[in-house]
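thought: fold this chain, then report.
action: predict
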Amino acid sequence: MNMPNVHKCPGDGCDQGIPYNRLMCRADWYRVPKPLRDAVWETWDSGRGAASAAHTAAILAAIDACNRARAAEGVSAASSTAARGPGHV
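observation:
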């Protein structure tokens, strides 16, 4: 992942490169329950909430929910890439 301004999706086993202005890949984001997705956006507050305790807590809760959903679905890195196609971000 040598592209600038890109980070690895935090979903366990996900190898997708994600622009820094996104938390995770689209597939993993939609594994997060809507109330948690809303909390991430609400606490972000157009950037004013960046790095706040509330926003950090919302991010960590969203990543945890994503990873629990991935585990419940039995999603692996190989199946994630195959389902989304190569290079999908």
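thought: worth noting. Residues 7-80 form one domain.
final: tokens above.
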